[in-house]
Amino acid sequence: MQSSFLLRRLWPLEEVYEDSLRSHTYRLRKKIERDSKHPEYIGSVRGLGYRFLVVPRKPERSLRDECESLEAGLASRSRDRQEIRV
């Protein structure tokens, strides 16, 4: 992504310079990268901007599946507690 595109999208109503974007990217890398000097997620493209270094993958299970599984587990616990009280 070009830096100018990111600047317009992230700060549409403010005049922000590339140094600010660079600083925020540095901080983001410090948070998410194992080694910010050798990024695995956000790469720099000299003279252009940034790019994602990994392709997002589709999760094996959907959020709906996760919620249904969680609800089933909670219902099972509730039944177990009721049986203990009786």
Summary of the model, kept short:
The protein has 86 residues and is mainly alpha-helical.
Q: What report would you give on this structure?
A:
The chain has 86 residues and is mainly alpha-helical. It has a domain of 50 residues: Arc Repressor Mutant, subunit A. The chain has three helices and two strands. The protein has a two-stranded antiparallel ribbon with strand order 1-2. The chain starts with a helix and ends with a helix.
What brief labels describe this structure?
86 residues; mainly alpha; Arc Repressor Mutant, subunit A; two-stranded antiparallel sheet; 2 strands; 53% helix
Q: How much is the average pLDDT?
A: 84
Strand content: 5-15%
Unreliable segments of 5+ consecutive residues = none
Categorize the overall geometry.
elongated
Q: Within the largest sheet, what's the order of strands?
A: 1-2
Secondary-structure-based class equals mainly alpha
Could you please say which CATH topology of the domain at 3-52 applies here? Arc Repressor Mutant, subunit A
Cα radius of gyration in angstroms: 22 Å
Order of helices and strands: HHEEH
> At CATH's second level, what is the architecture of the domain at 3-52?
Orthogonal Bundle
